[in-house]
From TrEMBL, chain A:
Protein name: ABC transporter permease
Key words of the record: Cell membrane, Membrane, Transmembrane, Transmembrane helix
Residue spans crossing the bilayer: 12-31, 57-78, 85-104, 129-151, 178-199, 211-230, 237-258, 264-281
Subcellular location: Cell membrane
Annotated membrane topology: Multi-pass membrane protein
InterPro entries, sorted: ABC_transp_permease (IPR001851)
UniProt organism field: Periweissella beninensis
TrEMBL record, chain B:
InterPro entries, alphabetized: AAA+_ATPase, ABC_transporter-like_ATP-bd, ABC_transporter-like_CS, ABC_transpr_LolD-like, P-loop_NTPase
Pfam families listed in its UniProt record: ABC_tran (PF00005)
Protein name, UniProt field: ATP-binding cassette domain-containing protein
Membrane-spanning segments: none
UniProt key word Methyltransferase: no
UniProt domain ABC transporter: residue ranges: 6-253
Gene Ontology MF, one: ATP binding
Signal peptide (UniProt feature, chain positions): none
Organism for this UniProt entry: Periweissella beninensis
Entry keywords, A to Z: ATP-binding, Nucleotide-binding
């Protein structure tokens, strides 16, 4: 029972990464590597501030801000500097590694005996792992609500159009460069926020915790899409959360098969690769027919 | 003559500047466009028609010369700022619409062309009745597909939608870049008729590139020909009406 609750909790808090990456990967239509740096940046920022006695809520707000600042750097390199987005992201990610070492004053920092979002107030009185589930659920609900409001606003629609057809967007007076920079700021801010939450849940921040993050975030997006097929934009956001939880259960399953924690990145990459390849397999296994059956019964 | 709505003086444009393939496309264009002008723009490939449209729209910058809209100098304004006055329909139906957004969503985006976009809800429902009436005018079933992503439409429907989007807010100047060229003859004629009717009904000022001499003669009140970056023919009203296809073929044969 505990392991199920813990897995759902993990899925919920890691879903923030999927939602953050969705903004760039699916709406703006490019893969942003800076998230591999902004995730530990958010963790480092929050953990270092909590160590200074700063309120965890403020520490998480600060994590969001440092993440979006890093996203702005990537955005400026890409739009104003004409550096290809993959390279721009890698430059930011590489630079952040040194910054994280400075913030943490070392390669990791523990939260032992510190007040965090997950061990203070009402969270203390919950049964084990329910604090993660409750925190994750609250954050996800607020986040999806805000994202839906944003994307359905006049401005949000212009943002979507930027990713969908930049030439058309400009011809309608939409400043696509500004939209792309803003999107990268929002995305990386959310990823850093997710990093701050994951660090509090784990009880430490580590400079290496960003390795493979883009794969995990993509996995929740892709698994959600493979499982539910065609959805409207609002439902796609919810599908990411379900995808993130499903991904955690897949990991739980393979870990039960006897793999070690050190194999995690290999397993993540394999899970994502299989999910990405699944359209190619559909004719062989009737795979999507089964999955479509599932999504139809949900609808 | 009233005051020109668009005034171009001594416009020159050089592309691939500083390279060995540097090329001057526009070589001193002078053009006054007056309110209500519907100009058909002819010229062989490489004459500079698309470049002229791009410089007016702001995608390309003028190297020398000035562009004024309603006596207001816009030469230095970027493309997005100029969308307050200028709208355009591209030749490629894919360029004019956002494929993952629905027909209604695309129209709603176009309704705010050149205007400030707020963080308030877009309120799509409120505009649906208006869009229903509007899309009926295309006569190709677009009104039945308001909630369809534009990527699923036919090329003709997509281009008709692009045209509706460009004319939705009565632009000061409408630029049409061979907007029917990618369509089959029947669909192309339909869109040309819609174009003509919309321009007449809303008293729009338009500049249309075309390669079809019949269209250039049949539509508009003014005909301009470009050759090698310069305007070599500019006829209007009665003089244009008396032009024939043979005249044009003769004219182009001399170049």
């Amino acid at each position: 029972m505990n392991i199920i609750v813990s897995t759902i909790g993990q899925g919920l808090i890691w879903a923030i990464l999927g939602l953050g990456l969705f903004i760039t990967f699916r709406i703006l239509n490019f893969a942003d590597m800076s998230v591999e740096g902004t995730f530990p940046l958010g963790a480092a920022t929050a953990v270092a501030l909590i160590h200074q006695g700063i309120n965890p809520y403020l520490a998480m707000l600060a994590a969001f801000l440092t993440g979006s600042l890093a996203g702005m750097v990537t955005g400026l390199l890409y739009t104003k500097g004409n550096i290809p987005i993959l390279l721009a992201g890698i430059l930011t990610m590489t630079a952040i590694f040194s910054i994280n070492l400075r913030i943490l004053n070392g390669s990791n920092l523990s939260l032992l005996n510190q007040h965090t979002l997950l061990n203070s107030g009402i969270m203390k009185s919950l049964p084990p792992y329910f604090n993660t589930v409750l925190t994750g659920l609250l954050v996800i609900i607020i986040l999806i609500g805000l994202l839906i409001y944003f994307l359905q606003s006049e401005f949000g629609q212009a943002f979507i159009a930027t990713g969908d057809n930049p030439i058309m967007a400009r011809s309608l007076g939409i400043k696509t460069d500004a939209m792309i920079i803003l999107g990268l700021m929002l995305s990386n801010g959310l990823i850093a926020f997710g990093g701050a939450l994951v660090a509090q849940n784990n009880g430490f921040a580590d400079v290496n915790m960003g390795i493979g993050i883009i794969v995990i975030a993509l996995a929740s997006i892709i698994i959600g899409e493979v499982a539910f097929g065609n959805l409207n934009l609002n439902n796609r956001l919810v599908a990411i959360v379900v995808g993130s939880i499903m991904y955690r259960f897949v990991l739980l399953f393979v870990m039960q098969l006897g793999f070690a924690a050190n194999d995690l990145n290999l397993l993540s990459a394999i899970v994502l690769a299989l999910a990405l390849l699944s359209p190619k397999f559909r004719h062989f296994f009737g795979f999507t027919r089964i999955l479509k059956g599932v999504s139809r019964s949900h609808a | 003559m009233p005051n020109p709505i668009l005034s171009i003086e001594n416009l020159t444009t050089v592309v691939r500047k500083g390279t060995s393939s540097e090329l001057q496309i526009l070589k001193g264009i002078n053009l006054d466009i007056f309110p209500g002008d519907f100009i058909t723009l002819l010229g062989s490939n490489g004459a500079g028609k698309s470049t002229l449209l791009n410089v007016i729209a702001g995608n390309l910058t003028a190297d020398t010369g000035t562009i004024k809209i309603n006596a207001h100098d816009v030469t230095k304004q970027d493309e997005t700022t100029r969308t307050k006055y200028i709208s355009r329909v591209f030749q490629d139906p894919k360029l004019g619409t956002a494929p993952r957004l629905t027909v209604a969503e695309n129209l709603l985006l176009a309704k705010k062309r050149g205007l400030k976009r707020t963080f308030l809800p877009r309120n799509l429902k409120r505009s649906l009745p208006e869009f229903k009436v509007l899309t009926k005018t295309t006569g190709n079933g677009l009104d039945q597909r308001l909630n369809t992503p534009t990527g699923d439409l036919s090329g003709g429907q997509r281009q008709a939608l692009s045209f509706l989007m460009a004319t939705l807010n009565n632009p000061t100047i409408l630029l049409l870049d061979e907007h029917t060229a990618a369509l089959d003859p029947k669909t192309s004629d339909q869109l040309m008729q819609l174009t003509d009717k919309t321009i007449q009904d809303n008293h729009l000022t338009a500049l249309m590139i075309t390669h079809r001499l019949e269209d250039a003669l049949k539509y508009g009140n003014r005909l301009i020909a470009l050759h090698d970056g310069q305007i070599t023919l500019d006829v209007r009203d009665n003089e244009k009406a008396s032009l024939t296809k043979a005249d044009l073929l003769n004219y182009f044969a001399t170049y």
